[in-house]
Design goal:
Largest sheet: none
Oligomer: single chain
Number of strands: 0
Helix content: over 70%
Structural class: mainly alpha
Shape: globular
Length: 218
Amino acid sequence: MSLRVRCLFVLSALALFLVLMVASAAVYPGGTYHDRTYPRHHFWYNYLCDLLHEHALGGGRNVLGARLATAGMLLLVVLMAVYWTLAPAFLPSRPVLGRVCSVVGVISSVGLIAVALTPSDRLPKFHTAAIVLATLPGLVAAAAVIVGRTFEPDVTVSIRVLGAATLLFVVATAGVFVVHTWFGGGFGRALPAFQRVAALCTVAWLGTTTFMLLRSGA
């Protein structure tokens, strides 16, 4: 695939991913880990992974929502794998780093398949392990691309700010997840909100950087 085709694919897949996740949230019958009686999806208190449950936390059936969320997560795997192949183009002054990020990022994307196919309600231990295994190489690649990209001479201040915010919230979310899950830290109520902000920043970073690469004549 040419660079232009890959950029167009990432942007199209990102838009479809958002549609699928919003649709899944719209049909979610309700319930969070902190309030099982909440009548619908809560933007700040539900995890994205809650949408993968065939039985919602409130007890209602969520078969359609789970199918939509699973499709969205698997699409995310593919678009992220393609996005990582763009790393050398994002880092033209650091070609070796770009190629390394591509390899590490694709490995992380493959790990995301396990996250989508191991819902936390049915396979909680596997789901947690999949998140950790997919996150570690993904964090390394993301940090390298974000830091490397922000120091390229053609990058605007707004991209630098977005990159810093994305990296900050992704790392913070990973840290809070580890503390809460493995050490019993008291971050349970805050963790879904951290996840949402990190997800929003990530979507903004993916879309903005890919669009700018496409506009530059990719």
